[in-house]
Amino acid sequence: MKAVVKYGKGKGLMEIRDVPEPKIKEDEVLIEVKAVSVCGSDLHIYHDSHPYWPPVVLGHEFSGVIREVGREVKGWKVGDRVVSETRTGSCGVCYICQSGYPQVCEQKRPYGIGINGAYAKYVAGPARLLHRLPDNVPFEVGAVIEPTAICVTSILERSRLQAGESVLITGPGPIGLISLAVAKAAGVRFVGITGTSADEGIRFQKARELGVDLMIIVDKEDPVQKIMEITNGLGVDILIETSGSGRAIAQAFEMVRRLGRVCAIGISGKETVPIPYDRGIFKAIRYDFCFSSSWTAWETTIGLIAKGLLPVEKIITHKFPIEKWEEAFHLLENLQAAKVILIP
Ligand SMILES: [Zn+2]
Ligand SMILES: [Zn+2]
Question: I need a surface site. Which of 101, 238, 270, 280 has the fewest CB within 10 A?
Answer without folding.
Answer: 270
